[in-house]
C-alpha cells in the first residue's frame, strides 16, 4: 500500500492528466454552459424524453431555472457516467496525494499507518456520498 | 540559483494548492449531497454560493486549480520527455503565465456571469 510504488506513481500521473481534461469540461459546463442559454439546442440532452417538460418548468419558475437545467443535463445518462468517473478520479488523485505526503513527512510508523488508513477511509466515504448524490438525482421525485 | 528557487516555489505551491483543492473537494461533494435533495435544497445551496465570501473563494479556487493543473502537466512532461527537461526554464515561465491568464480571464468571466 506504499505510495512509493511505481504503479501508484504512474496512476497519479494518469489520473492527473485525465483530471486536467475532465475538470476543464466540468468547470466549463457548470459555470458557462448550464443555464438558460442551453435550452436552444439539444446537444447534451439526447435521450431525454422529458426535456421539453423540463424547459417549460424552468420557464414557468425562473428561481428554479438552474435546478431544471441540471435536471436536463442529468437526463442524459452519459453525464451521470461522466460525473461518476470525474468524482472517482478526483477522490483518487486528491487523497493519494495526501497519502504520499503522509508517507513523506510522518516518520513514526504508528502515526503514519493510522493517518494513511484514515485518509483512505475518508476518500471512500466521500466517493460514496458523491456517487449517491449524482446517481440518485431525480427531479421527478419532487 | 534562479532555477532552483523558482522550482522550489513551484513545488511548495503545488502542495499548498493541492491541499486547498482537497479541502474544496470535501466541501463540494458535501454540498452536492444536499443539492440532490430537491429544488428547495438546491436553491438554498446556490444562494449560499452567491454570497461575496464564496464568490471570492471561487476565483481563488480557479487560480489554485489552474496552477496545480498546469504545473502538474509541466511535471509530467518533464518526467516523460527529454525535450521538456531541456526546456524546463521556458516551461516554468509558460506555466506561471498561463495560470495567471486563466485565473484572471476565467475569474473575470465568473465574476460578471452573475
How would you briefly describe this protein structure?
Chain A has 142 residues and is mainly α. Chain A contains five helices and no strands. Chain B has one domain: Fumarate reductase/succinate dehydrogenase, transmembrane subunit (3 helical TM bundles of succinate and fumarate reductases, Up-down Bundle), CATH 1.20.1300.10.
Largest sheet of chain A: none
SSE class of chain B: mainly alpha
Q: Count every helix of chain B, treating DSSP H or I runs of 4 or more residues as helices.
A: 5
Number of helices of chain A: 5
Q: Can you identify the CATH superfamily of chain B?
A: Fumarate reductase/succinate dehydrogenase, transmembrane subunit
Secondary-structure-derived class of chain A: mainly alpha
Number of domains of chain A: 1
Strand content of chain B: under 5%
Spell out the key features of this protein:
A: 142 residues; B: 3 helical TM bundles of succinate and fumarate reductases; 91% helix; elongated
Describe the structure.
- The complex is a heterodimer of chains A (142) and B (114).
- With 142 residues, chain A is mostly helical.
- Chain A has one domain.
- Chain A contains 5 helices and no strands.
- In chain A, helix 1 (6-33) packs across helix 4.
- In chain A, 24% of the residues are buried.
- Chain B has 114 residues and is mainly alpha-helical.
- In chain B, 91% of the residues lie in helices and 0% in strands.
- The longest helix of chain B is centred in the first third of the chain and has 34 residues, at 2-35.
- The model of chain B has no long low-confidence stretch (mean pLDDT 91).
- Chains A and B meet through helix 1, helix 3, helix 4 and helix 5 of A and helix 1, helix 2 and helix 3 of B.
